[in-house]
Protein 1
Amino acid sequence: MAAVGDLAVKFGGLIKKERVFDFKNGVFGAPTKRSEVCALNLRKLRAGGSRIGGAQAVMQVGVESDAGVSRDSKNLEGALGFDVVTEVELREKGFLGLRKTKLVCTIGPACCSLDDLEKLAMGGMNVARLNMCHNTREWHQDLVRKINKLNEEKGFCVSLMIDTEGSQIHVVDHGAPSTVKAEEGSVWFFTNEKFEGSRPFTIQANYEGFAEGIQVGDEIVFDGGMATFKVVEKVGNDLRCKCTDPGLLLPRAKLSFWRDGKLVEKNYQLPTLSPKDWSDIDFGISEGVDFIAMSFVNDADAVTHLKNYISTKSSKSIQVLAKIESLEALHKLHEIVAASDGIMIARGDLGVEIPLEQIPTVQEEITYVCRQLNKPVVVASQLLESMVEYPTPTRAEVADVSEAVRQYADALMLSGESAIGPFGQKALSVLRMTSSRMELWSREENRQDILFQHNLEPSLPDQIADQICNSAAAMANNLGIDAIFVYTRHGQMASVISRNRPNPPIFAFTNESSTRMALNLRWGVTPLVVDLSDDMEGNITRSVHLLKTNGLIKNGDTVLVVSDIIPTSTTQTVFQSIQVKTIA
Ligand SMILES: Nc1ncnc2c1ncn2[C@@H]1O[C@H](COP(=O)(O)OP(=O)(O)O)[C@@H](O)[C@H]1O
Ligand SMILES: C=C(OP(=O)(O)O)C(=O)O
Ligand SMILES: [K+]
Ligand SMILES: [Mg+2]
């Protein structure tokens, strides 16, 4: 594997394997090529079906022969739903080389041309995020059109997410187009009133009740610590404040209020979804976006309300992600995770409401709860913040990204790095390489945490499906399987396999396009749309054949197939199986 110029590095005694730095791909690698994955000696084992409460679970190990499928079935050729990025990655790196951690890019003026978007898609963007705080309806509409075009015409599979503005107290006007410096001891006037022209030392806040309940002596903190002011006088609805900790005031800076070292929780008076948010949500529904990220969620009811609203308005299933970005949301974490389709750890605003040193442990806690409850989790904000300005990340940023990957977050998100920074593609490649590297390390060192297996649903058929997925993941690791295939209509089986974070990639075959786009946020899952028939054996044979004729799978590869047939009008039994197939 090592070529001339490669650097062989041995880590003294602690780590058994030799690591080789591959300059071309920029990664340290251990010998993990497909051919080197442990050869399997599979015998024709056939375990009979065991009946459990009316459901049949079959486990079989066999040898797949391609002989039965005719090679000229044209409709099958066209049905290979691989996206172009996975296909290239698979050809270049093999099954184990496929990246597991998903990547979300915030789209902004720096990356909104079709050409820029294509480069991000090619660079591994799984989800494009539109932050409704910024820009116009027309701009967002144009973006949706461009992403759809790339998917339809260029074979990408990029999901769309809109992110609501939400209710939050922030600066509207601070008297300058960009940053203003607040000097120690300077006195500033905080008001909700709009003012014309320049009025030095005046800050306009967006919410008229911003000073309600605030007392002389309280503190106003900008952006979680950029600058701090002490309230010296209340003037009607306004405040006169003195700068006690000098710093930079940014446009739209977030304001938080503190008393005796504790946050004065103020967001409770603001609705989670404003009239503008509802209008943005209607826009998202009419454009058929895949995810709606809901800012400043404070309880499960808000999530349930939005989910109900969507189900009455949209025939398509749209995933609601709850953004955890307030103290109140942390108090109600479990119920919010349970009510939502996924979570975004919005560290930007979270860092305004809780002390910064608590962010790492809170992040670990949230990722843990999400995995227990089988909800995808996105780690967001400031991952590579310095790259908004510089073409290279800090070592600390790379360490932060690696930590999120080590925690098995489903996805990582870029904000300003892609939206306004000139190095968006480079930032994306840093995420890509850093995640691949940490995934490899976790796998080799077998750092997999033992997952406390919550039963996700109380009903028996669901528990059986859970256990099949858990066992499938364990089998895949123990047998050194190359790839897991799962047939899944709503994505549930694929998500439960993913939740186990198995070593091989998970190819999820579904007949629902919305399921495919939702699975784009799931760790380790490559979702594909295929025609699924009730004949599960036929589905399996067809998909293996498709991959084989496209050169993506070869003789000797081993695939673990998980299938799940739900009763239809013609078949009354639930038939679930795990099969191990060696391609021959
Ligand atoms: N659609 C957009 N149009 C213009 N600027 C944007 C857009 N989306 C994001 N940005 C810019 O990128 C920065 C980072 O994005 P994000 O983290 O989503 O927003 P914010 O910082 O407002 O929470 C924003 O502060 C804003 O300057
Ligand atoms: C992702 C976040 O939300 P937004 O960018 O919408 O403020 C955050 O606060 O970290
Ligand atoms: K937002
Ligand atoms: Mg936020």
Protein 2
Amino acid sequence: IVIVSARGARDSFCCSPAQTPPPTSAIRLGQTRPFLTGSLPSLMRSSLAPLGLPVSRDRVIASFPKWYTPEACLQLKDHFHGQVSAACQRRNTGTVGLRLSKVVVVGDLYVGKTSLIHRFCKNVFDRDYKATIGVDFEIERFEIAGIPYSLQIWDTAGQEKFKCIASAYYRGAQVIITAFDLTDVQTLAHTRQWLADALRENAASSCFIFLVGTKKDLLSGAACEQAEAEAVHLANEMQAEYWSVSAKTGENVKAFFSRVAALSFEHSVLQDLERRSSTQLQVGDGDLIRMKGSSPESQEGRGLSSLGCC
Ligand SMILES: Nc1nc2c(ncn2[C@@H]2O[C@H](COP(=O)(O)OP(=O)(O)OP(=O)(O)O)[C@@H](O)[C@H]2O)c(=O)[nH]1
Ligand SMILES: [Mg+2]
């Protein structure tokens, strides 16, 4: 890990998958974003997460955030899974509060991936286009049902020439966000390929997939309805949840990321409960072999596949 000041604007943290610094030429390309950055304050905040310091009020999620449209959503229920609520109340969520869940944002150049992330993480909007080179990331801390939880949000380059750098960072994603521009139907068609590329590095069964239409402020009325209808159709084909957002006005941005965080949090807790209840076989005092650490709920014998559903 090398600490560099990439453009003098802010301190940045910079590394590659092999933990080597990027070529300096990548950093010097004036109107572009550097190869890989993550803000130092984010990094410091992330290291504080395990201490359980309070998060800002707008990152506290107490009730399960709702979908954008029931026609293309990953789950319809409006409450946390019973086992998750019980585990949170007992503070029995294992290592979930200590881990970072990886979110990868992909899509064509200029669709607004960086703008979406910056609106959520920094509450800013920049009208000028600065292409992302390679990848960039932000860390956002939440408190969900009383438990600390962090997302590591990876912003990737849409430009073809940077694709090979960006794709090196797809692996290990818990959430894949495929973004397109609501005003440019070609970018919607291309999301199929972006998703296929991301799924080459991740198992579809272990990821939540979102399809996000950006620049909602530029469309209204029938044009917006038409674009959304096409997107919902594709989202169902991709088994993705659909959202329309605007980084410019901020419309739906916080609601969208809250939904992302809540779904991945719930899944992480269920996975953790499952893992802990299915291991640690222990020989008891008498003739019995009993499961150590298994909760009464998990002793009912329900598998994870039935835990995560509506
Ligand atoms: N009107 C409007 N413009 C937007 C919105 N989001 C992004 N833009 C503009 O669209 C352009 C591209 O945005 P970026 O966020 O840099 O796009 P990107 O997908 O990150 O592009 P690459 O990094 O090259 O992959 C910029 O000029 C933004 O100001 C939006 O919600 N509304
Ligand atoms: Mg970008």
